[in-house]
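tool_call predict_complex ligand=phosphoenolpyruvate
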Amino acid sequence: MDRLVITGGNRLEGQIPISGAKNAALPLMCAGLLSSDSLVLSNLPQLADIRTLSDLLGGHGAELKVERDGGPLNGGRTLSITTKDITSTVAPYDIVRKMRASILVLGPLLAREGEATVSLPGGCAIGNRPIDLHLKGFQEMGAEIELKEGYVRAHAPGGRLEGGTVHFPMVSVGATENILMAATLARGTTVIENAAREPEISDLANCLNKMGARVTGIGSETLTVEGVDRLHGGEHDVMPDRIEAGSYAAAAAITNGQIELTGDNLKQVLTGSYDVLKEAGLGFEQTDRGLMCWLKSDHIQGINVVTQPYPGFPTDMQAQVMALMTLCDGASVITETIFENRFMHVPELARMGADITVHGNTATVRGVKKLLGAPVMATDLRASMSLVLAGLAAEGETYVNRIYHLDRGYEALVEKLTACGAKIIREKADGV
Ligand SMILES: CC(=O)N[C@H]1[C@@H](OP(=O)(O)OP(=O)(O)OC[C@H]2O[C@@H](n3ccc(=O)[nH]c3=O)[C@H](O)[C@@H]2O)O[C@H](CO)[C@@H](O)[C@@H]1O
Ligand SMILES: C=C(OP(=O)(O)O)C(=O)O
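tool_result ok
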């Protein structure tokens, strides 16, 4: 198993190109199941999750072809997904267990074939993560659902889902995406109330419209989808990764460096994190190529922050901001409201000298003068990134184990940080 070895204390300076967003790319790829024509997606990041989903889609009959490969530092990949026929409506446990977003094939399969059998994804390190809202939504569209032997078996009587009103009692990104995709091919109109408003959902809705879907209300909490008989192919550029951008902005600040994030509309992409990072002392300046980020104030400023659905502060930035706060002037209070168990990075940061107390869903972080390198390991993707950030600032060497989490969501992490002067290498480590 690989690990990262980071020698901390280097001021980072340089450019980092922001990749296409994992959390946009995954639902967009699933949309490829909705049409027998080709969906061509550009700016796709090369990540473990994308490979996992490619395997899953291949099992349903999709043909995936790399049309262009600019590499992570030059525009990413262009992939065509052509699903002439759905050859299997079963999403097996062996693939779904690797990646929870696999549940997003349920809506497209059910919409196109009138049936789907998808393994229940189970929980993960950050929480229970049930899928009841997805299932309730499909039932409101006429589907019959059965849970058997760890699988969801969904069936649309008469072979087609019916439009209806799907009201979500709480905001769910995945459930909104699943119902949105299913509704494009349903009979009649579907109104999705209390829809999540994350930009990745707008990216998906815009792509679906390019494929002939009729989605209105994009970006709002009510999405209206007029079902059509078939979707055609389309071309779509995956939006930039707002969490990757925020993570590298935090890297600039924690090393007292200066990083130019390159890509389009990055200030807007950072909505939700932008104000929080500014309050923490970051300066931002729009440049020709993107957004310059640096620590503007003398010290990192302690802040109080609460994770919220978009446009609030994203839970996927919570661990990285906590890493930043370990070195703040004064204290910071961080409240996690989205996932019930998303503080697994706290004990690891504490091993590096951080002073953090957790009560329920609130962490109080008292800034320390310095962090000290240590062997650490994380249980999820963003927690791993928080340890990388801490390692970049720490005195001495930090060994980040279990980096398969980082491979899920940060494209070319070592290359991007090295290009800015970080001392970071990836090496084999036995038995961790
Ligand atoms: C691939 C992807 O895009 N992942 C993102 C997506 O995950 P994901 O789509 O899984 O997250 P949700 O928005 O669905 O989850 C939000 C909350 O709702 C709960 N819930 C969700 C569905 C359900 O049927 N029942 C239920 O109770 C979850 O347990 C969680 O507490 O949004 C999260 C919240 O912004 C992000 O952290 C993830 O990075
Ligand atoms: C939690 C995340 O992803 P997933 O929903 O795929 O687990 C994430 O991207 O931070």
